[in-house]
Amino acid sequence: xxxxxxxxxxSPWSNMIRDASEWFAGPLGQQLLxxxxxxxxxxxxxxxxxxxxxxxxxxxxxxxxxxxxRSVRIGAALPGVEIICDEQAxxxxxxxxxxxxxxxxxxxxxxxxxxxxEAARSVRPGGHLLIIxxxxxxxxxxxxxVSREAFRHARCIRASRVGDWLNLLxxxxxxxRFGCYCPPLSSSRWQSRLARMEPVGQRIQxxxxxxYLLVARKLMxxxxxxxxxxxxxxxxxxxxxxxxxxxxxxxx
Length: 252
Fold this sequence. Notes:
This protein is of the alpha/beta class. It is about 35% helix and about 20% strand. A seven-stranded mixed beta sheet has the order 3-2-1-4-5-7-6, sandwiched between helices. α4 links the parallel β4 and β5. The model is unreliable at about 1-5 (pLDDT under 50). It holds the Pfam family Methyltransf_11. This is Class I SAM-dependent methyltransferase. InterPro entries: Methyltransf_11 (IPR013216), SAM-dependent_MTases_sf (IPR029063).
């Protein structure tokens, strides 16, 4: 694929992605991605197919699964991205992928609706769309509100709202889970002390984890039933014999 023009690579969207990538490379971003990698691996082990497409504003290894033959990363010009493209124009055919993963793509997006439409269009009927986003109702959501780093640009869209968008795009939400219950602390010492919160939160699944993971399946395209005419056929009129009355009978 040909590289994007330099004007597009230096666009506000590309600059935001690069800033987000630097934040994910830091200690807090790595803490969040480490927990997401475990949850994502558990869900991908239940999926199967030939092609997986991953989109995310960070540099990390591609999610792998023995049930998937080929994985490819698309998005902004970051190390490891094989297909460079704009968030609103994926160079993929319709129904090209069995699985599409949007990992914080909606969080760092100038047009979340357009990005989600591109991802939904690329999933084959019966395939899966997995979305990971920052949970606004968590300590990470509070951190985003007071952050002075690139994390402050995260949209933190609610999981319920994303679920409504998926429903409109013809997807059925199969699962919603949360993770990363340890608060965003830069100190590794405090992270190790609070690490016991993670297994407890994972077991209870309180909707207060730092991230949410949505697993949605694209509904099959069915045939539209033929419209039937509900009007009943009317039978033919049959002449009935009518008695004749003479004028003489009436006068009497």
